[in-house]
């Protein structure tokens, strides 16, 4: 017996309650109900189902029926997010009538719509009104960002105008936000002008140099970015958060060894030691790892559980497996001991003693004295090790046993869904992801994973878009979700719209999947040299990436 998706079930319940009519399959939705409560409920259900246009339409109907400016505002904001400018305009008109004294949000919506429509004078007036208000620059940034995909040239001109007229306040974050927008728009001269102003206005701020380095790196100028970072000197050592941020930037420039070297200076704690270990491992610096290991051993005659765990992991990285086993065995009872026993399984597997490793991990699964999350993680670890051993049957059995012990555990369901997708069993992957969404209807990871899988591996693009929209509402700045959104737009035949979102995703996270998607979209748009650069970047990040392999096969690059 077929089952309605959750959104369809909710709409059916509304219909049975007499709150709204139902359209026959394949027909357009009927006019929204006039009852404000019913319309707002339908709008919320549509929003939760990822039907953004319908949500905006229902909320607008509710606002019209109730003469409610709050509902009009909600309709306008949802319509903007859904790229439904006509609906947003109707909601704004109603909102202005119901609330004649304009709010900052109202002016932000007006500015966004004017920018998207290429209306220079209205956009200029709305932005000036925002920038004249305390903290109004934030709303101005939101409005400009909302029009980048439609009118990049219009947005760049307005930013340049604002900077030239001195309309930005003397607030560092405001200048950095506008500089970041200029960087997204690939306007190097405008970025340079903003940076010059920032340096002039905030000469003693190391954060300014850090942001300058980030912009240069994102503009494809790594040598210049490196020079800026090198020029910071010892100033970064005074602020722990800044030292960590600069180290992250060195890592992003492909120099984890320099990042580790920087973190070795200044105050140390277990978090910094762990970060140094990760960076040294990434740099394949065995000498550095050895020095850190010896340093930690000397500095703690009676190390705490966290330090013992770190020493065990360092020994593991150095392939000093016997020492790693000793450190893990020395971790005292409590939460840390369960993690130590899981790491011990890893070590035995790495030593080649796979039978002992699997026996130990299954003993963990059966040990009812352990915390449930440790036992659950033991099933996940066994599945991971089976995958490493190219044992798909064993991986599947481990996850199935895990779900028998922990029914409906979201982590186990998610791991199994990814397993099914790798094994090209899309129906089973979808079933597990939908099961997660029954348990946790707003699980952002599952929404995005299911939406992306449907977009990438099927032709159910409209359904994929609805799922990704729900994830996007919950977490609009998540790089993986933005990538999924761009990818489904590409699949829907909108490569130019997709490009802006994929560029933003790659700015947020240097990921081989995103780079592969960017390359494929650019290839379709005829920008093949640029596409090849992204394919090479994806290859550098992960030469065996599946998205890259598919992109190269489909484009012939």
Automatic annotation (TrEMBL):
Keywords: Signal, TPR repeat. SUPFAM superfamilies: TPR-like (SSF48452). This is Tetratricopeptide repeat-containing protein. InterPro entries: TPR-like_helical_dom_sf, TPR_rpt. It comes from Thermomonas hydrothermalis. It comes from the Bacteria. Pfam families: TPR_16 (PF13432). Residues 1-25 form the signal peptide. PANTHER family: CELL DIVISION CYCLE 16,23,27, CELL DIVISION CYCLE PROTEIN 27 HOMOLOG. The keyword Signal applies. TPR repeats lie at residues 512-545.
């Amino acid at each position: 017996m077929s089952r309605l998706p959750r959104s369809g079930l909710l709409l059916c319940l509304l219909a049975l309650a007499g709150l709204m009519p139902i359209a026959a399959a394949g027909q357009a939705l009927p006019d929204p109900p006039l009852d404000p409560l019913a319309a707002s409920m339908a709008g919320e259900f549509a929003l939760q189902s990822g039907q953004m246009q319908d949500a905006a339409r229902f909320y607008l109907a509710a606002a019209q029926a109730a003469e409610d400016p709050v509902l009009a505002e909600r309709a306008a904001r949802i319509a903007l997010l859904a790229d439904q400018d006509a609906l947003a305009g109707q909601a704004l008109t109603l909102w202005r009538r119901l609330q004649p004294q304009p709010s900052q949000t109202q002016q932000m919506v007006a500015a966004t719509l004017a920018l998207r429509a290429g209306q220079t004078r209205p956009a200029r007036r709305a932005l000036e009104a925002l920038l004249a208000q305390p903290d109004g620059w934030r709303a101005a940034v939101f409005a400009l960002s909302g029009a980048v995909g439609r009118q990049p040239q219009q947005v760049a001109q307005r930013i340049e105008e604002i900077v030239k007229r001195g309309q930005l306040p003397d607030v560092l974050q405001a200048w950095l936000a506008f500089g970041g927008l200029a960087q997204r728009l690939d306007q190097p001269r405008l970025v340079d002008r903003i940076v010059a102003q920032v340096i002039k206005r905030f000469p003693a701020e190391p954060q300014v140099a850090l942001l300058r380095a980030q912009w240069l790196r994102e503009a494809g100028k790594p040598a210049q970015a490196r020079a800026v970072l090198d020029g910071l000197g010892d100033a970064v050592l005074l602020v722990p958060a800044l030292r960590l941020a600069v180290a992250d930037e060195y890592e992003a420039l492909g120099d984890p060894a320099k990042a580790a070297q920087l973190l070795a200076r200044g105050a140390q704690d277990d978090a910094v030691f762990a970060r140094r270990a990760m960076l040294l491992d990434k740099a394949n610096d065995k000498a550095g790892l050895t020095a850190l290991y010896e340093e930690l051993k000397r500095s703690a005659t009676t190390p705490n559980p966290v330090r013992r765990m770190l020493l065990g992991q360092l020994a593991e990285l150095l392939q000093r497996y016997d020492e790693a086993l000793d450190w893990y065995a020395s971790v005292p009872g409590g939460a840390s001991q369960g993690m130590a026993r899981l790491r011990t399984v890893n070590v035995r597997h790495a030593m080649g003693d796979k039978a002992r490793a699997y026996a130990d991990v299954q003993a963990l699964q059966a040990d009812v004295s352990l915390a449930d999350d440790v036992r659950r993680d033991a099933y996940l670890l066994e599945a991971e090790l089976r995958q490493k051993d190219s044992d798909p049957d064993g991986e599947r059995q481990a996850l199935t046993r895990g779900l028998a012990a922990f029914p409906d555990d979201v982590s186990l369901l998610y791991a199994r869904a990814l397993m099914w997708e790798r094994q090209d069993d899309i129906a089973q992957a979808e079933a597990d992801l939908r099961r997660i969404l029954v348990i946790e209807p707003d699980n952002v990871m599952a929404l995005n994973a299911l939406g992306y899988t449907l977009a990438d591996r099927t032709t159910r693009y409209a359904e994929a878009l609805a799922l990704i929209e729900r994830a996007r509402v919950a977490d609009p700045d998540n790089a993986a979700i933005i990538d999924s959104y761009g990818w489904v737009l590409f699949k829907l035949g909108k490569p130019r719209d997709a490009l802006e979102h994929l560029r933003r995703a790659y700015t947020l996270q240097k990921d081989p999947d995103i780079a592969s998607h960017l390359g494929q979209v650019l290839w379709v748009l005829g920008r093949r040299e640029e596409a090849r650069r992204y394919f090479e970047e994806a290859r550098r990040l992960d030469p065996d990436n599946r998205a890259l392999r598919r992109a190269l096969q489909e484009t012939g690059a």
